[in-house]
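Appendix B, example 12.
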Amino acid sequence: MSAGEKAKAKAEQVAGRAVRKAAHAVHKDTFAAKGAALEARGRMRGAKERSKGWFKH
């Protein structure tokens, strides 16, 4: 996995988690859902990059 893509995936996960936690704290369900989606997108980006690296070897 390239370092840039790995960093981008981790940044999306962290940002999504922060948005989700903040939205739960102020009881905003729509923002919590957006944060969860962002976090999931980061996890899927990481999984894609890990599988790409596996196929190269």
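The radius of gyration is 13 Å. The chain has a mean pLDDT of 90.
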